[in-house]
């Protein structure tokens, strides 16, 4: 029934029709790309606020009555025995002493900056004080407090905690809202949400109608969303004089924020933590008897291309660090330090010490130290998983039933969360493996020991080559202080720093703000959809403005994919993209998947790319894991198609209750597959809601068509594309910007001797030393020409040039004309309402 698809499909198969497309072909089928702003409102859970400007007397009365009900309910709870006990606990927190000072400062000023040690009660108490005092003043039903958190897990955990402190279930007066999920009721007056959610609300409600207080938490982290939100709020404040803004920060760079808001007053909550003793690598080596592995011993992994590159990088870094260590050892402090340790320090490898040293330290704690939970800071999810496997496989830690080993990550289920926060039974040692998420936003009370690898994965951005880099880098002194402080919550603690003291001394004071080290595409799209004017002007108002070159790159990219027009105005595609909570390129893929009725597989890919790779690649079983993955690719030169097959296979296995078996056999992460599954459901809901999918029955008519799927992948990932030239012994890959690139060893294409496609599109390239492309899919010339980029912008010549004049056959004038017209129609189609 849908002419265009048949036509495109036959083109992709190389049966080129000479008849140019006519307009009518586009008129059929489910092509609406219209949006309903209301739909978004409902999704984000911000129903229309009852408090409209034309509030009638009756409405006024209802509000008063509800406020009184709220006050009674609060009083009843506070007077109940349980409520009393809770109040006792809350009064013991350092924030309580400052309650009146805080409320007073907030009532007198539009902006207040609050700082205080982690755990003093900023997040759980301050929003609650505001809510309680409004309720006490019988204004409960008229207030609306929004408190943002940088991460999903903290928004959910904190809401749960605050509801419990108020003797309520979540969704009564306290709720939460995170991406595609939330618990919020009619009476919710305190909402914890991610920063992203508040930004999305600003998209449809630019003056935050009905909101009385905005609290931005953890601003010291300087995340991109937080910095962005601050610019928007700074603009909004003069237009909403009655709106209160409270900024909360753990470490003491409060002055920076205070001066950004014209010298807003600062309230500091003095905190109390027990002293924590620091052990640096030097002491740890003696304490545990651990010997650093000389770097050469890790040579047996040498087959792997990627590893070789890392090794080179490491060799360089090792020399730098070793000499830094040497320098410091020479310095007065270390003069009498034993020669033996000096030697081991000089072959100290910051990456390979990792697991074994951590294992030794954990052993030491489990066998020799007093009771208390252990919190281990690691760089990323992969590391956490591998270490967890390693620790479980070698029960070095003693009786396994006496050890509770937990991993803490953003998408964990609440049962798991509970285990992390709860004190285990006596005699059980709780060990929590976490990323820097556990640094400030969540508090695990019973931690007595912190083991810190000293690094965090940080995205950085090479603006010159327009390439994002993701590398573990040394944390800042501020982070280090935070991590250490986690050990002193209930009694004096110990912190094991897995690096020498001199490395610590060389840490930067604060981490570089994210805005200055990541690509800015999504952000620029948001600036446009919020109608905040010129992107460059807007970003120049940031706390610390990003490089003009980075801004320019992002704008160029958005023009290239057709999200912005030549004058930097949002196109229809751009507006649709800004409604979808995924990166622009993944949003584009979803929209194409919906338009071309092959939504199911495309949703799997997009969910996979936005969660994480479900294919596990354990270091010591890499060969097995790679061949397991290769089975899913069945030699079709696509990691994305392999992902679809793996996912579909898992769904089938799940139906027969064999999901885990299936994952185990195929080196897949069941947890990731589950996350992908739930994200897919949410995508479908969002697409329907935004009018991008009208008919659920027909949106999969073409889902079996592998060519079409490749083409849609290409539509999303372009200009993430490299040309393929098969040489006798190797394959040469080139992108426009970088010249030669290499395939990441996890890709199914890395095992191939020949790739029978002229192009590979990829989701991500990462600069480690060389530039590596991760997941990739082979695509044909016609796919690139029809689906890649935005023709109307560059015209045929420009497009050809972009493709490096590679498609010589294409120069035949009639062929060119046909392609050109199809492409133009296609671009128009995407850009119609
Ligand atoms: O935000 P800040 O780091 O200042 O502290 P908070 O998150 O408000 O936590 C204050 C106190 O509440 C912590 O010290 C914990 O004792 C307690 N808390 C808890 O018991 N359970 C939670 N889920 C969160 C906090
Ligand atoms: Mg907090």
TrEMBL record:
GO CC annotation, single: nucleus
Protein name as it appears in the record: RNA helicase
Catalytic activity, reaction form: ATP + H2O = ADP + phosphate + H(+)
Membership in a protein family: Belongs to the DExH box helicase family.
UniProt domain Helicase C-terminal: residue ranges: 357-531
Molecular function terms from GO: ATP binding; ATP hydrolysis activity; RNA binding; RNA helicase activity
Record's keyword annotation contains ATP-binding: yes
Keyword annotations from UniProtKB, A to Z: ATP-binding, Helicase, Hydrolase, Nucleotide-binding, RNA-binding
Region (Disordered): 18-38
The organism's place on the tree of life at top rank: Eukaryota
Enzyme class: hydrolase
Record domain Helicase ATP-binding: where: 103-270
Signal peptide: none
EC number: 3.6.4.13
